[in-house]
Amino acid sequence: MGNKLSYCERRCQICTVSFRVKRVPTPEEEDAWHARDAAALQALQRNDGAGYDGSVISTEEMKGINTLRCLLQKPADFVPEEGDEDFERDSSCFLTDFAVHQGPYIYDSGTFNTVRHGVSEAKITNDNGNFGGEWGMPFHPACFEIFKRVCLRKLGFVDIDGLWRVRDLRGLFEYSMGCGFPPLSVRQYAFDDEKWHHKPGTEYLAANPVDIPGFQELLNHLSDSEDTSKEPNHQAPSPGAPSHSQSHSALTTSGTDIFSTLPPELLTEILWSLSARDIANLRLASRSFRTLPPILFKHLIRTEMPYFWEIDGLDPRGTDWADLYKMLQHNWSSGLLGLRNRVRIWHEAEKIVEMIQETNHGLTH
Ligand SMILES: [Zn+2]
Known about the structure:
four-stranded antiparallel beta sheet, 13 helices, alpha+beta, 2 domains, globular, 8 strands, 365 residues, binds zinc ion
């Protein structure tokens, strides 16, 4: 009995989006291409369902959607090479270089940019059926970067053997349908039939989650060190904080705020141990927390939005962390497509790493 996935377009094993997602050019782009190359235009003719609307997602935003790299099992005669990643040395798998997956056969990776460990091309599959042991496991290079970050955060090392093991355990079609792998966020597009559905409104699924046009400029704008009004000790309001009229004194005795007797250092210590929601509640209860140190918002971004790793490169004194916190909260879902996809993939990678942890503890069978 065949495995249905064997006949589907190959998908990224981490984000589950097909490598063959396409984009329909805008009329303006078509005009420009027509002037240059009529044959190229013919190949990109508008056709319902042929791709995402180019006026919604740009070529730059989709950069890398057709690019993959693979994990392969090391052969018995495997020899380490210069350029191997640390996490490859002690693993039973190794990485290929990048390839553009656009050939006629869905099971051909395409030619890798460079030959690594003698591999210039590979057969690829998402399931563990008849081929899993020898064929490559494909993923977007950007998604693998996110997987690495989640691994380091959760496990302390990059567990590519764990990723392979999870695919072996969950790669069967029956498992996929019942156990949340691939994730619900894209399952309906991947499984309705063999091809990707370019459903309007899902363009963000194809946006590069690492190289996001406009994101660094946005961060730079908010960390403009020329703005002298952004002093590090400037007191900023908390998002979701109550207005003064909403404040009450649940934690007061005889009209006295019990926190008002504590030294500022201790108040700061308390804030550092709380979530944004707890801080908002605390501010409802005590006027001692009416104003918050801006650097607290950097801490909150780090702990509650770890997928915005670019903040570590910002000027700590020249950045308005409160503004940045609010911007990131709003922008990841409603602004840049790549940010929305990054958050989605980060959470999917977290689920994969949780499965790896379960298999490490022998909990999955
Ligand atoms: Zn991916």
